[in-house]
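User: For my dataset I need records formatted as: sequence, then structure tokens, nothing else. Please produce one.
Assistant:
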Amino acid sequence: MIHEDDQSDYLLAVRKRIEENFKRTINETELANTAGVSVSKLQHDFPVYFGINLQDYQTEVRINKAKTLLTESNKAIKQIAREVGYKSGESFCRAFKKMTNQTPSEYRETPTGK
């Protein structure tokens, strides 16, 4: 999905900002302002370049961080939810299941974590 062009720098910067600030949802207006482009340009270019929209990417980053915590720690699921930016364990569990087809507990119990 990645295209080599001059526009990629701003998209890589947006992706990096999301990854570095995964504990909070950054709205599209803030991301666009930071990148110096319009919201509509960002909404169009990001999925073309990365194959995923901004909101889903933010969720994916959080869930991937949670997967690591689930397999590498014995922290409570509610604590992990907070550490990856969810305000409630319930919303975290819903997002996790939607993305992985498993609850966080089921994921943690699988031998490979998959």
